[in-house]
Specification:
mainly alpha; 0% strand; flat
């Protein structure tokens, strides 16, 4: 696993934890979709 992947997973875990702590409505599908988009933008064409 690359460092970028591990970092991304750590950030995702932090985001999920923050959501749970904040007790906000959380759309997991939308969250995952936005992560996919972000990842593809970082990788480039």
């Amino acid at each position: 696993m690359s460092i970028a992947n591990r970092l991304g997973q750590t950030m995702a875990l932090k985001e999920v934890t923050n959501q749970l702590l904040a007790c906000e409505p959380f759309d997991a599908y939308q969250f995952l979709e936005s992560r996919e988009t972000k990842a593809s933008q970082e990788t480039g064409p």
